[in-house]
Design goal:
- The chain is built from 11 helices and 4 strands.
- The protein is mainly α and 398 residues long.
- The protein has a domain of 273 residues: Photosynthetic Reaction Center, subunit C, domain 2.
- Strand 3 and strand 4 form a beta hairpin.
- Helix 4 runs antiparallel to helix 8.
- The termini are far apart.
- About 11% of the residues have low confidence.
- The protein binds heme C (4 copies).
- The site of one heme C has 24 residues, from helix 5, helix 7, helix 8 and helix 9.
- The site of one heme C (HEC) has 24 residues, from helix 3 and helix 4.
Length: 398
């Protein structure tokens, strides 16, 4: 390129530079105001990147009555779904197949055979059936015990799976890389990942979704010394908040009033919903997914690099919608997913053995938890911890 030709190029680059540096997003926006004018209580949505909630597949057919012979009378080995009618049971199996079995499953594993040996439907020789049983309990538990979050809308397997055996969005522990450099421990910062909006915030937001890592950071009194949390904790909390916002496709003011991020009185009710959501996710991971660690096959993409199963966060269900699937409920056609089967009274929840088993969560603060199964005695202690999570889930304190 000669000098003459270079000049217009240079000028064009110079003119474009402010646009790039300003980080402005071009294109149409949609603004919704939630609070009094001037308080910044609004949502700004970029219509160019707004995502479609998607349309759930229809039920195989409509169930006309829930009367009739109970499934247990024909299949005495049922553990969860024995109390519904044979017909409803068959319908649910058909729907589950649509929701979970991948369209490209190998021929021998297509349809019902993804979980069943066709010659012995009662057998648990395929690991997928064991997993599905725990998933059934998890789904029922969410729909019944977490209505403060999922309301009457509820969830089905489809909310997470969307026609795939492994949901598109999940997380697992990261290998414990040596974070200490000559400049010190960088606390997961300056390693931008999508989860925290490519910012330089700590990149470990998922560590809040197993166990009970404290999210609150603001001081509750006038005296700054009264809180043990420092700026470092605040940065981790902000990383989590970036992830939550992205998962729901919203801005901070969807839940908070910037007048006081910690203040429940001036927050939107959505903040309360999110608070329950965090506890619901912790329980799903601790009681229903983490204990499947030994069930999943290795080297098949079912376990993360540390050997723990792929777990749930907000994005697993929400997928950039403030309500998953745009708030559409699929429970009317699948009522059994919103009832506690006999399992709940006979054998309450699962032994939370692996709860925090996979344990102390690895945080970028260097708290490292080996992902290992905990001995029975410790498991009993952990059970208390789960009770504590549940009890604490009743109301937020402070
Ligand atoms: C994603 C895994 C999965 C798929 C796919 C699946 N099932 Fe099931 N099926 C289960 C689970 C889990 C149970 C046990 C439920 C319980 O104990 O309450 C079960 C139980 C059964 C039983 C009772 C077996 C017995 O005697 O105990 C029958 C029959 C059955 N399924 C039929 C089907 C049919 C037909 C299809 C295909 C339309 C199908 N299933 C697809 C997971 C699956
Ligand atoms: C809250 C989200 C969520 C819901 C609801 C959910 N699942 Fe899952 N499911 C997961 C995640 C995450 C995994 C991946 C675990 C892994 O691979 O380590 C999974 C894995 C599975 C697998 C193993 C698939 C494979 O190929 O290894 C089966 C089978 C399954 N789920 C069945 C079900 C069924 C049946 C339901 C409804 C009764 C259901 N799931 C509801 C999150 C969910
Ligand atoms: C979907 C709702 C939701 C969104 C969106 C959200 N937050 Fe939060 N935020 C919460 C909840 C719930 C808590 C309290 C969690 C807890 O105590 O367990 C919280 C806590 C906080 C705290 C700590 C307050 C305290 O009590 O010490 C700060 C700071 C914060 N959020 C900032 C933000 C910022 C900044 C954004 C945007 C990047 C954001 N939040 C987006 C729900 C949300
Ligand atoms: C198991 C699926 C699932 C997971 C995981 C999940 N949610 Fe939800 N969430 C729902 C459903 C379903 C609704 C819709 C309830 C309704 O109809 O009002 C909802 C609603 C909400 C709402 C209210 C939205 C509104 O418009 O009023 C907020 C806020 C929210 N979720 C935040 C979260 C956060 C934060 C997380 C992660 C900590 C999370 N959710 C994880 C299923 C889920």
């Amino acid at each position: 390129m000669n000098r003459q030709a270079r000049r217009p190029v240079a000028i064009a680059i110079l003119l474009a530079l402010p646009l790039l540096l300003a980080g402005c997003e071009l294109g149409p926006k949609e603004t919704t105001q939630y609070g009094p004018r001037g308080t910044g209580m609004e949502q700004v949505v970029n219509l160019n990147i707004k995502q479609d909630p998607g349309i759930p597949p229809p039920s195989a057919y409509q169930l006309e009555t829930r009367e009739g012979q109970r499934a247990r009378e024909i299949y005495p080995e049922l553990k969860v779904l024995g109390d519904i009618s044979v017909e409803e049971f068959g319908l649910l199996m058909a729907n589950i197949t649509t929701w979970v079995v991948p369209a490209d499953a190998p021929a021998a594993e297509q349809g019902c055979n993804y979980c069943h040996n066709p010659d012995n439907m009662a057998s648990y020789e395929k690991y997928t059936k064991t997993v599905a049983l725990s998933m059934l309990k998890m789904t029922q538990n969410i729909n019944l015990n977490w209505q403060q979050h999922v309301k009457q809308t509820g969830v089905t397997c489809y909310t997470c799976h969307r026609g795939k055996a492994i949901p598109e969005y999940s997380w697992s522990f990261e290998p414990d890389e040596d974070q200490t450099t000559i400049l010190g421990n960088k606390q997961g910062q300056n390693t931008p990942v999508q989860a925290v909006g490519w910012s330089s915030l700590p990149n470990d937001p998922n560590s809040y979704f197993l166990g009970d890592r404290e999210i609150k950071v603001a001081g509750r009194t006038l005296h700054p010394g009264a809180t043990t949390n420092g700026i470092k904790d605040a940065e981790h909390t902000f990383g989590l908040m970036m992830q939550i916002s992205g998962a729901l496709g919203v801005n901070c003011t969807f839940c908070h009033n910037t007048q006081g991020f910690q203040n429940w009185d001036v927050s939107r009710t959505q903040k309360m919903s999110a608070w329950h959501g965090v506890r619901m996710v912790r329980e799903a991971n601790a009681d229903y997914i983490q204990p499947l660690m030994a069930t999943f096959p290795v080297n098949m993409g079912r376990l993360g690099p540390m050997g723990d199963p792929l777990k749930v966060n907000c994005q697993t269900c929400h997928q950039a919608q403030s309500k998953p699937l745009g708030g559409v409920s699929m429970l009317a056609d699948n009522p059994a997913l919103a009832e506690l089967g006999a399992w709940a009274t006979v054998a309450p929840a699962q032994t939370p053995s692996a709860v925090i088993a996979g344990g102390t969560v690895r945080t970028t603060d260097g708290v490292v938890g080996a992902v290992a199964v905990v001995p029975a005695a410790t498991a009993a202690l952990l059970a208390d911890k789960v009770q504590a999570i549940r009890a604490a889930a009743a109301t937020p304190a402070g």
